Amino acid sequence: MADITYRQALHDTLREELLRDENVFLLGEEIGTFEGSYKITAGLLKEFGPKRVVDTPIVENGFVGMATGAAMLGLRPIVEIMTINFIVLAMDQIVNHAAKIYAMFGGQCPVPLVIRTPGGGGQQLAATHSQNLEVWFAHVPGLKVVAPSTPADAKGLLRTSVRDNNPVIFLENLALYNVKGEEPGSDYMVPIGQAKVTKEGTDLTVISYSRMAAVALDVAQRLEQENNLSVEVVDLRSLRPLDHETILNSVRKTNRAIVFEEDWRSFGIGAEIAALVQEEAFDDLDAPVKRVASLEVPLPYSKPLEMATLTGAKQLLESINELAPRRRRR
Amino acid sequence: MSEVTMPRLSDTMQEGTIAHWLKKAGDEVKKGDILAEVETDKATMDLEAYEAGTLQQILVQEGETVPIGQAVALIGTGAVAQKPEQPAPAPAADRTGVEEAPATAPVQAESTTGSQEAVEKRDNGALVKASPLARRMAEEHNIDLSQVRGTGPGGRIVRDDIEDVREQQHAAPAPTPPAPASQPAAPPQEVPGPAAQLAAPPPDVEISKLSRVQMLIARRLTESKQTIPHFYVSSEVDMTDALAMRQVLNADVGEDGVKVTVNDLIVKACALALEKFPEVNSTFKDDQRIQYKHINIGIAVDVPSGLVVPVIRNTNIKGVRSIAREAKALIAKARANKLAPADLEGGTFSVSNLGMMDASNFIAVINPPQAAILAVASTRKQFVPVDGQPVIRDLMTMTLSADHRVIYGATVARFLQEVKRLLQNPYNLLG
Questions:
Q1: In terms of CA atoms, which chain A residue is nearest residue B134?
Q2: Are the CB atoms for B47 and B21 separated by under 8 Å?
Q3: Are A326 and B158 a contacting pair at CB < 8 A?
């Protein structure tokens, strides 16, 4: 199969879903005429018309509420929030409505809603436009949160998300859009809640998701080649529900774990996984679970400061070197 | 109470292994007494007591390796029973209704390591820190955590440490497997642990842990063969005249005189040839040739634990007889495992001789940081054509291994030619 970009994978899948099910429609800011701020929806307005590809005003609470209502009445809306930073305006619609309606009204109407939105820093977009807020949603029962790191998983997870009857937060990342990867077959589906061991290893496990999962895989592969350290990488792919089994199996095998995340450290994904591991695999741990995350400050605009703040391969490498078992270190 | 720590016994020493304790807990020691023998990366050396008192406790058991500066034993005054890890009489008396403490004190004095409640406490009373996995493994393999040295953060015992213990147990099967029941009080520190019997090695092999010196040899030679571009040049030497001269030299040596060996003559010949070809007396470092001003020749000595290369300094300015005397002394020290680090340092060239073992030809691995080593094979009687007639002569093959980064083929050939010339005209060696 040829390689495609993460952007192309999203675009193609949206188009396929629009073709497959006439109840699917897209809405969001600038997704039609302007073809999307990140060009994910290029050409779709032309092909499917303004009823299926809806340009909205700049009111996140308004159009997320509208999409929730549409989903309740049987349509399958896919909302694009330009970046996750703007999702805060729609918190009430997502947390108090979309996430709760099915449970609060006795299961009378599911809310098959997908909210796609990119997070991530590193683009010099400063503190209010570079955040990783997915953990807020991963905290809320009634929502599903997925965060693919490869074009193939983006396709596989977007397909399952659109066909799922629950509201799904579909997390993308600005720095992943141009990343290339293998194009999966047309029937490739990734179940929500299923992590993937993207590289087998024996010395320690790095658990990550979204862009950092790609960084972790790269670091692990380099380490294997350069100094024989055998790092296992678990790409979570879904944050809620979280695949406990894959995480625990890996930690039981390697006995040491690092959670690598681009968001802030406190109360984060790493905290959740560290807690899970000590609850369920305490006797398999040979060292405390390490968290590698970004510094806890509003992200600076200045490029050097931004780079100093965000976590990355260097920080992961340092932590791996600290945590690797003595007998495997060179 | 003061700690006896692992001393720094050579410049390159980072850690040492307690080879053998000569004193045991409870022994009175005087300042200067030898407490233990310590194996370093270079040699086996004595660990002396720096103060007098009673050896209260041995903290590092035989065979264990610790970094320099770490406490290996405690020396103090008074009886061993007053060790802090034993419930001291005073606190015991404070507890109301406690009667057993005084009664059991003498018994406890016999046991040197209080392992009764050992899972949670070190002998010195400190809590044992261990990762959950290490605890689980220790339980599974019946390992007493209080006897395991932790190398994790803050001295935490981690999986690696348990695996070290398990490997040691595999390497050293319990010394007294079918311990007779009538022998109740083997000192705990001499028993690797009951798990040694559980973990039987595979039946058709015998696994033994390499000693520090053997590990060092393994590492150095691997490094040598992997990083140094070796090349080899051989030459055949007619030793007939050298052997004849040696007989003359040794003929009137009395009972206690030192006889000159063939190897001594070869070492002397190499030293003189190195004067003429100083390129061979050099080393490669950071894209530079470092040429030594002194000629210090190491002689490979086969010892039970492997191989050592003690050094004869300034070989070129020493006479054949002093070389012989020095070589004999060094070989004796090597065999007794008594070489000091100074005996092993500073070599600039080596000679390895397997002639006495009837090796007809061999090549040696360079002993870094040196750049060359001469492998000397046996001398055999062979027919050689002299004036068209077969004549029996004593021929010997020698092969020089050289580091091609600093020495080239023609140089080596010329160097060997010179060694050969000297050995074939052996009175030059006495000049």
A1: A286
A2: no
A3: yes
